[in-house]
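Q: Given only this backbone (294 positions), what sequence would you predict?
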């Protein structure tokens, strides 16, 4: 029996509709239109596509958006000046610097320059610190999306053993901290594992909920799962495929064909976690605008 597929597109669409209604109400009642400022440095195709998607989502949801595209050789001082400009701009409630940045720029210094109250990507050290100690904060968008996927698909993590495979600052560490909090949609027992583990399969077989965020194509197989577990696959990897017009196909960190025969529920790639990231960015931007209007 195949696992239930957790439809990220459907859940993301529901969240976006909630944001659209909330943004319209905020504009009608407080005359505030939620605004997002996005800065893109360089010409990375994946980043350009993602930035376009953010602008399109803002337009669809009745939000204001402003995108600044900067050449790859942009000086750090120029970028810091732009961030300060948006920090002081009442039309901009959320600021997002598209990562990765060129190596000539100090990524941490630039992130730290964002006003934490406008850090809708949830990656400022202040927001990450608030997250760890359980204070209200902007949660990083992909981890927040994972939590929403679980809760809205009927897989509440409370009391479950969640194994997170991956320890990045973008996904692994934040989702672990989100799910271990004593809070609704969390309160899980959390283990963080990674590819350096002596016996990774022994750890993954203990998971009621497995979150794979390693960045290694199809490295988690069905034999590494506990029967009936829930699998959330965060990976997006290109693998060669001569049958595809593009010469490649997109796969996750989980070997889907074998995993869906063991799991009770699983997110597909694409169409699982991916759509949730922009939905949660829109949600965070609305929350930032509401705080501004309060």
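A: Predicted residues:
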């Amino acid at each position: 029996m195949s696992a239930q597929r957790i439809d990220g597109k459907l859940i993301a669409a529901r969240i976006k509709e909630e944001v659209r209604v909330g943004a319209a109400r905020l504009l009608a009642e407080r005359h505030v239109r939620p605004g997002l400022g996005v800065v893109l440095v360089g010409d990375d195709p994946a980043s350009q596509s993602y930035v376009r998607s953010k602008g399109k989502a803002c337009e669809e949801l009745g939000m204001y958006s402003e995108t600044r595209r900067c050449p790859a050789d942009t000086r750090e001082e120029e970028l810091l000046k732009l961030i300060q400009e948006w920090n002081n701009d009442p039309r901009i409630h959320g600021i997002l610097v598209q990562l990765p940045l060129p190596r000539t720029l100090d990524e941490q210094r630039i992130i730290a320059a964002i006003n934490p109250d406008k850090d809708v990507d949830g990656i400022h050290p202040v927001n990450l610190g608030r997250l760890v100690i359980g204070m209200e904060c902007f949660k990083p968008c992909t981890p927040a999306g994972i939590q929403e996927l679980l809760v809205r698909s009927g897989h509440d993590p409370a009391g479950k053993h969640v194994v997170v495979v991956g320890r990045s600052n973008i996904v692994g560490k934040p989702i672990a901290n989100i799910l271990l909090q004593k809070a609704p949609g969390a309160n899980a027992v959390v283990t963080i594992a990674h590819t350096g583990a002596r016996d990774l399969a022994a750890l993954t077989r203990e998971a009621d909920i497995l979150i794979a965020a390693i960045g290694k194509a199809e490295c988690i197989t069905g034999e590494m799962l506990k029967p009936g577990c829930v699998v959330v696959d965060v990976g997006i990897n290109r693998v060669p495929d001569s049958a595809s017009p593009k010469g490649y196909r997109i796969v996750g960190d989980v070997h889907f064909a074998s995993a869906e025969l063991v799991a009770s529920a699983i997110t597909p790639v694409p169409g699982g976690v991916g759509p949730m990231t922009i939905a949660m960015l829109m949600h965070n931007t609305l929350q930032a605008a509401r705080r501004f209007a309060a």
